[in-house]
Amino acid sequence: MPCNRSNHWTMPRALWTAWVWAVISVFTEGASDQASSLSCDPTGVCDGHSRSLNSIPSGLTAGVKSLDLSDNEITYVGNRDLQRCVNLKTLRLGANEIHTVEEDSFFHLRNLEYLDLSYNRLSNLSSSWFRSLYVLKFLNLLGNLYKTLGETSLFSHLPNLRTLKVGNSNSFTQIHEKDFTGLTFLEELEISAQNLQLYVPKSLKSIQNISHLILHLKQPVLLLDILIDIVSSLDYLELRDTNLHTFYFSEASISEINTSVKKLIFRNVQFTDESFVEVVKLFNYVSGILEVEFDDCTHDGIGDFTALTLNRIRYLGNVETLTIRKLHIPQFFLFYDLSSIYPLTGKVKRVTIENSKVFLVPCLLSQHLKSLEYLDLSENLMSEETLRNSACEHAWPFLQTLVLRQNRLKSLEKTGELLLTLKNLNNLDISKNNFLSMPETCQWPGKMKQLNLSSTRIHSLTQCLPQTLEILDVSNNNLDSFSLILPQLKELYISRNKLKTLPDASFLPVLSVMRISGNIINTFSKEQLDSFPQLKALEAGGNNFICSCDFLSFTQGQQALARVLVDWPDGYRCDAPSHVRGQRVQDARLSLSECHRAAVVSAVCCALFLLLLLTGVLCHRFHGLWYMKMMWAWLQAKRKPRKAPRRDLCYDAFVSYSEQDSYWVENLMVQELEHFNPPFKLCLHKRDFVPGKWIIDNIIDSIEKSRKTIFVLSENFVRSEWCKYELDFSHFRLFDENNDAAILILLEPIDKKAIPQRFCKLRKIMNTKTYLEWPTDETQQEAFWLNLRAAIRS
Questions:
Q1: How many whole angstroms separate alpha carbon 530 and alpha carbon 538?
Q2: Three-state SS for 574?
């Protein structure tokens, strides 16, 4: 039984041990995977966002200075997770599932300047998290689940905080007086409180100065209470996502306060006719407002602003700049003529109405805009027909800048004529309209100095352009040349066209800025740049540069060029030659042969001349010319038939001899052979060669028509060039055919070593064939002739 009990406990223990090791290995592997999911650069910037992490990776050290763990699944921040990151300056923990942060989690982060805890699940905030973060400048707590900013002041230990974002879109409902205690100056404060139900007066008043306040409020119930507290300490108010249908402005609440608000933005805000009147009242009583912007707003009304007249409101306060972007008017076709608001516009100097489907500015409204200096109607529906009414007589009398970018203008000539009423206009932007072509002549306001014709699809420039221009933008068109004389032009923007060269400097004598990138320019030179005496900035990158030696020498050798080329060196890339394509012009290097072609050609020519000279010397020394002549003759011989038919043989023997040995041949050998009975018929070159026929052909034909070839060898024979030919042809036609047609007569002793190297055939013949020697003893000469006759007959 004890033995059985032992077995009973041993088995579960083994299973338990295996299970523990498996768990440990899983956790170890998980920790290893998490640590490896971070990517850190040498400067200590670590990126771990969107890595599906469920906890802060272990092993973080003091070398980490920036840590991004946003967009993960982290749920908990413990006291020890970041304790070694004593040099950490930036910590991003946004968009996780964090619901708990222990009290001392950030205690060791005394150098932290940026902390993002937005869009987590924090339901309670603790001031102990921030008590050691003295240098913190940025804190984002948006999008969590808390209802208030804690029981005590959260930010009293953050004297250097400059950007603060708090609140959420649902549960954050209360702002108390102690919430912002300790904060004296903020560059940006964003409060998301769509469902705000309680605002304790003076809660924001403790902040002495706020540069930019962003308020997310669904309803305007508490808006005035907030304005009362901040209107004397705020520079820039931005109201977002608010329905102002029920907004009512009380004059008594704010009229006596010294206001500092200079800019007011309404972003994604809804108005009615009545609430718009209340907002205009606000402009009048908050006297410091100079700039108002409506961005992506909706006007739920029909333009009935008669209440403005009843309230005797004459101006939009001190507002000088009015900006409207993406204005939606659901009942636009029921809208009034807006005449009730015309008188309010008299002090406005800058108006921008973008992407709001504006097709007409009524003439009467244009005439009321007496102080207007800047008008931007970009991305609307203006055409020449409606512009005629908008730019009527006495319209916009002080207008200097008009922007009609991306409308429906089609005629450049008509546009210029319609704007003649604008006597003070000097800056016109009509880019992104479809003009397509440019007429030869146009009329423009007399003070025109700036004209923007970019992205208008024009393909050529004419004298239509005003001569008074100082700034011209014709970028992103189809231009392939620029040949206009503009004597006052200082800045030319002509990028993204099809120009092949820089414009002629004589046409632009005072040009100081030129941007000509993105064309098809291959090169430019120092002389071209020097021809622009006042050029201070040139942007010519993005072209197809041919990196020639001259171009590289100019660009790489001019240190001062970098001060003129604003996009140097990254914008300048080689397109050719192919082996440097894609390289920066600054880094391209060409070989010596590419850069000094003339010198290389000269050197090659000199080398060839020397080679030819050397070849000539060698040919003369080693009889090269003789060998070439021999080769030509050999080729001629090779084309002839190998062997003549026997019926074509005319001679018993062809005699090859030197002219110096002609006495022996003609007076002795001919007498002995041709006068013998029966006689032998010999072929002698003096007697039997065909006159006028090439001597080589005579030699070849004579050898072929003879049964034998007799070589009379002597020192004279060796020195004779034609004898050498006869010997070679005989060797080729006879010896190579393995017959025995050659007869050698040694007229005098010849030392084989004294025979020149070019008589290699003769050396070979004398080593392989028997030859007859001419005896000096007269008693032996009869036997010589007998042997010679026998050899010819054989």
A1: 12
A2: strand
Report the candidate in 663, 651, 658 with the shortest Cα–Cα distance to residue 715.
658
Q: Are 244 and 275 in contact (CB under 8 A)?
A: yes
How far is residue 282's CA from residue 278's CA, in Å, rounded to a whole number?
6
DSSP letter at 396? S
4: left (phi over 0), alpha (psi -120 to 50) or beta: alpha
CA distance 516 to 539: 6
pLDDT in tens, 74-121: 999 999 999 999 999 999 999 999 999 999 999 999 999 999 999 999
What are residue 381's DSSP bridge partners?
none
The per-residue pLDDT for 775 is 87
Closest C-alpha among 199, 161, 197, 167 to residue 182: 161
Cis peptide before 503 (omega within 30 of 0): no
Q: Which CATH class is domain 651-793?
A: alpha beta
The DSSP annotation for 420-470 comes to GG-TT--EEE-TTS------S-----TT--EEE-TTS------TTS-TT-S
Per-residue confidence band for 712, with pLDDT thresholds at 50, 70 and 90: confident
Pairing of strands 39-40, 45-47: antiparallel
In percent, how much of the chain has pLDDT > 90? Answer: 57
Helix (H) or strand (E) holding 10: helix 2-36
- Put residue 338 in one of left, alpha, beta given phi > 0 → left and psi -120 to 50 → alpha: left
SS3 286: coil
Domain-by-domain residue ranges, the chain? Answer: 38-207, 651-793
- Going from the C-alpha of 764 to that of each of 623, 630, 634, 736, 771, the distances in angstroms are 19, 17, 18, 13, 13
Q: What pLDDT, on the 0 to 100 scale, is given for residue 716?
A: 80
Q: Using alpha carbons, list the distances in angstroms from residue 245 to 295, 506, 547.
A: 17, 63, 66
- pLDDT band at residue 17, thresholds of 50, 70 and 90? very low
Query: Would you identify the CATH topology of the domain 38-207?
Result: 3.80.10
Determine the pLDDT at residue 640: 57
| CA proximity to 713, closest of 755, 680, 671, 757 | 755
The DSSP symbol for 301 reads S
Tell me the pLDDT tens digit for each residue of 370-411. 999 999 999 999 999 999 999 999 999 999 999 999 999 999
